[in-house]
Amino acid sequence: MRKLREILRLRHEAGLSHRQIAASLRLSPTTVTEYLKRLEKAGFAWPVPEELTDRELERRLFPPAPLTRTRPLPDWPAVQRELRHKGVTLGLLWNDYITEHPDGYSYSRFCELFAEWLGEVDVVMRQHYRAGEMLFVDYAGMTVPVQDRAGGELRYAQIFVATLGASNYTYAEATWTQQLRDWIDAHVRAFAFFGGAPELLVPDNAKVGVKSPSYYEPDVNPTYQDLAAHYGVAVMPTRVRTPRDKAKVEKGVQEVERQILAPLRKMQFFSLADLNREIRRLLEVHNHRPFQKLPGSRRSLFEEVERPALRPLPAQPYEFAEWRRQLLGRDYHVEIDGHYYSAPHELCRKKLDVRATSTTVEIFYKGSREASHTRSFVKGGKTTASAHMPKHHRDWATRTPERYRRGAERIGPSAAELIKELLASGPHPQLTFKSCEGILRLVREYGRERVNAACSRALALGTLRYKSVRSILERGLDQHALPEEPPSGDSIPTVHVNLRGADYYR
Q: Do the domain assignments include residue 126?
């Protein structure tokens, strides 16, 4: 259960209150308090031992409990939307609700609950932001055209905006896309611009930052969560279709569009660097512009109250890491951009989390890191750790001509010579590996001395085969001297590996 570890990290490392942790992880403050009590009672502190898996941590804290049955609550936003249609009444919607949930609320209680929800939903609260607490991030609706100097093709740059809650101090930059890499890299440069990190990041529910948008429990993109952990911040997405939750950045985007992008409308840009240089110049003017109703400016307020409250940046900026979820196939390899990386073969047919940076590839199973490899960009190549292979695969992978030569040398000079000639006899050494393996294994049954003698006899007879060496050993011919060379080519040898002899017919 990843949220248990994240609760501990946000409490002990980030120093957030129970309510802030609850808002970041989309839990209730009561749940956060209960989790922390269970963790404290079980004796867990931060950091949690790496060898303790998420599954084991959850099992210790949450023993199975009997399920309790509660009445299902209607989807009030859907009810409100349906009431906008002509002829739709609360009575009609209650009939639909009770048909789907026969054990639901009565009509009178249904109306009371809807009235209570409706009385809360349109209430507007004036927010007060503590210094160093929140950084609101979003992309502007406007884009800026950039013309290719060589071909004349137009590309439209996207404008990333980040605004601090207490001082309204703003950062903006142009990126080519709103995709994950540009989104993450823009955050890294924003942190460098501010010279520190806030406690909370507040994005909207855009898919680039939130993997599964939800009104109640949005799931943050794993790479975005990785960035947050690197800088020690928490991610608190806004509610779906609720712009009031990020009014700061909405206002910041509006100011950037009016004070920076509008003045650029008549300028022509031929590179993203030129555009960002001009944005940075106008951004300085914008941040130094005096407030209309307050003393000072965004910059002076930032220097006075916000900068001291920001958290120091880590020694190294975050390195972009892409997370993927893959099913480990029968070949116990996962594929990243055309290259294959191994994982323990015991995890075949399991779903794994893969974290890939420009230098490393890490493979996780249920929160535990199972493999780490150096990143390779060779298409079709394989990076395989021998520890990840089954034993019979490891044995096969180590079959090389040199291995068989070394094994034969340990038996004797005749065995070494026979193996050498055997490896050279075929069109490819791998075609002779099984014969070499069989000859070397004869040592287990007959010993090195007899096998070496049998190899010597086989060399003299010109029979470079496993069956020939084994036949010599089975018939004991290795213990007899070789026959003398016949005086002429017409003579027939009296002792030969293929001659059965008189004893065969008895």
A: no
Confirm whether 468 is domain-assigned. Answer: yes
pTM: 0.51
Angle subtended by helix axes 90-100 and 76-83, to nearest 10: 140
Note whether 364 and 437 are same-domain residues: no
Under the banding of pLDDT at 50, 70 and 90, the label for residue 189 is very high
Amino acid at 114: F
For 288, phi and psi rounded to 5 degrees? -90, -5
Strands 322-327 and 234-235: unpaired
Residue 121 has pLDDT above 70, yes or no: no
Q: What does each C-alpha distance from 435 to 465, 466, 468 come to in angstroms? A: 7, 5, 11
Give buried/exposed letters for 96-135 (b at 16+ CB in 10 A, else e): ebbeeeeebbeeeebeeebeeeeeeeeeeeeeebebbbbb
Greatest CA separation for the chain: 122
Kindly list the distances between the CA atom of residue 112 and the CA atoms of 77, 87, 108, 116, 119, in Å, as whole numbers in the listed order. 15, 21, 6, 6, 11
Start-to-end Cα distance in the chain: 77
Task: Answer yes or no: is pLDDT of 166 > 90.
Answer: no
162 domain residue, yes or no: yes
Does residue 355 surpass a pLDDT of 70? yes
Residue 450's contacts (CB-CB under 8 Å, 6 or more residues apart) are: 473, 478, 479
**Structural domain range at position 41:** 2-61
Q: Which of 101, 112, 107, 31 is nearest to 73 (CA)?
A: 101
Q: Are residues 17 and 111 in the same domain?
A: no
Q: Based on the domain organization, do 173 and 109 belong to the same domain?
A: no
Same domain membership, residue 303 and residue 165 = yes
What's the half-sphere exposure (Cβ side, CA atoms, 13 Å) at 193? 21
**Domain presence at residue 326:** yes
Q: What is the pLDDT of residue 493?
A: 56
Backbone dihedral region for residue 501 (phi beyond 0: left; psi -120 to 50: alpha; all else: beta): left
